[in-house]
Amino acid sequence: MSAAPLSPTPRSTPNRTKHRTVTDRAALYEVLDAGLVCHLGIVLDSSPVVLPTTYGREGDTLYLHGSTGARSLRAAAKGADVCVAVTHVDGIVYARSLMHHSINYRSAVIHGTATPITERSAKLHALRVITDHLAPGSWGYARDATNKELAAVSVLALPLAEASVKIRATYPGDDPEDVEANAVWAGVLPLEVAFGAPIPSPDMTSQLPVPPHVTERRHLENPRAYAAAVPAG
Amino acid sequence: MSAAPLSPTPRSTPNRTKHRTVTDRAALYEVLDAGLVCHLGIVLDSSPVVLPTTYGREGDTLYLHGSTGARSLRAAAKGADVCVAVTHVDGIVYARSLMHHSINYRSAVIHGTATPITERSAKLHALRVITDHLAPGSWGYARDATNKELAAVSVLALPLAEASVKIRATYPGDDPEDVEANAVWAGVLPLEVAFGAPIPSPDMTSQLPVPPHVTERRHLENPRAYAAAVPAG
């Protein structure tokens, strides 16, 4: 894994709560790899448009895909600036004071311009990266894409060059007077995400066993980030 | 609750998968009320910026808040167009074919211009709506905001006038040949979100009981939407 530091620019450098900004690439990878959807922002007709979409990461490239008919994807494929955000909500922070209430979260924001991937083998590779992210184990198990299916999907590559990561993973930051007064409970209510039991599609003509890549899947949330910052006791 | 239909415009009308677009206001309220953070999109220096932030809804108004120092909030307060998205990932859709893999999700996207709330009582009311959303029960329990704290926060109101809701809550939509072949398991792996056990802040000078509004909090995810579309069996 590359250990190159991120290269924040003015627009990717939050001008608030700088202490929450993490500038190492490993943290960026962790936040992206733990997510399932990103929010893709783009400017259409001078107005912002934000759309949720799936993605995959390989090295310092984020792959996005969508229908060739999607206006935002078409604009992105033509080189319009994009902004991609991936956010995890890890807990609700209950402070002694209302205005110190907050959330614990991990968030990555990437700015850049995307490049369409059109060459067949490169496109298949990018789709594999996205599939491995969304449904690891499905590539090689489910039916391969046909040429017609491939043609209907647009795949873009966005470099992870201009990015920022913000993490809040700690207790309330109350004022000393409020801590001293000890009149109000303070703490964190963690939010936990997990996969439930697989639900077979009712249209299977005979019941097939659920494959291990589905039954054994664990959610990618990284508990370490939270556990480290919120030690027991 | 208002039952007025939404008023989609070209930019809020997805031009793909129209069958997934829901145009009733109750669905919009459900998606927004089940969320914890939204993604706020705005145009800064001609480029899109997407930032996660907390919010609250009352009737047909979405309240957003943030530091008065946040550039995106300042631009939004000056009347720049904004786009706000709230997305829930409800499950991974494993199809017989790779290209029909998908996610089950509920997503709301709102377009409009926001108005800053500056009058003291209106601002307190908006902050109460946001607090009641983020941490119901904390208003009236935790210490009230001081004037200095109030001055440091910017609160915006965004009308829920131009909005769209998209929901996918069903099984894979495979091609008939793939269903017929019955060679590949198909189904949904649901994603479940829940609150864990509250973690008291270690700086409490003596242990206070965890208040009921924290211990009894249940996650707002609406299981009905999923259960209705994915019946048992």
UniProtKB/TrEMBL annotation, chains A, B:
Gene3D superfamilies membership: Electron Transport, Fmn-binding Protein, Chain A
Region annotation (Disordered) ranges: 1-20
PANTHER family, per database record: 5-NITROIMIDAZOLE ANTIBIOTICS RESISTANCE PROTEIN, NIMA-FAMILY-RELATED PROTEIN-RELATED (PTHR34071), FLAVIN-NUCLEOTIDE-BINDING PROTEIN (PTHR34071:SF2)
Protein name as it appears in the record: Pyridoxamine 5'-phosphate oxidase family protein
Source organism of this protein record: Thermocrispum agreste
